[in-house]
Amino acid sequence: MQIKGRKFLSNKDRKLLQMKLSEIYGESIVDLIRNTDNLEEARSDEGKILLKENRMWFFSYNDLLIPSIYCLRESSMKLPKVVVDVGAIRFITNGADVMAPGVVFFDETIRKDAIVAIHEERAETIIAVGMSLIDAQEFEKTKKGKVVKMLHYLKDNIWNFQL
Questions:
Q1: Which of 24, 45, 74 is the endpoint of a domain?
Q2: pTM, two decimal places
Q3: Could you count the other beta carbons within 10 Å of the beta carbon of residue 59?
Q4: Average pLDDT over residues 112-129
Q5: Average pLDDT score, the chain
Q6: Rounded Cα gap, residues 107 and 96, in angstroms
């Protein structure tokens, strides 16, 4: 991932970002971005990214800001949860979409196209972030096929990003 340009966010830009993120992820996101944080917006060959203390916190996907695994682990931000069994972990950490047979828990609040955090079963650790392809009611009826499109996972370009 090559950085093409970056700039620190002004207070006005910071407030606009907080409003945009709170519309998508709820009011709890406002506490995530404090006025004392060094926030930068960067353009890369893969899209727009938001850096906090030189770590990637958000990246863009179809004009939507998606939190990174690092952001979810280091903050109080919560996304709807999908828990996968141990057998699915190696596929997911290699970029595969989440398939229904590997899911042991699918949050009942999940709607189609919602951004979800993918946890592994034993340690409840976040291993990926994805977009739900179905809602919770559909998941109860399905036993096969893709249920979550992978957007970011451990050891991908976003995880390995460094300035």
A1: 74
A2: 0.87
A3: 25
A4: 92
A5: 88
A6: 20
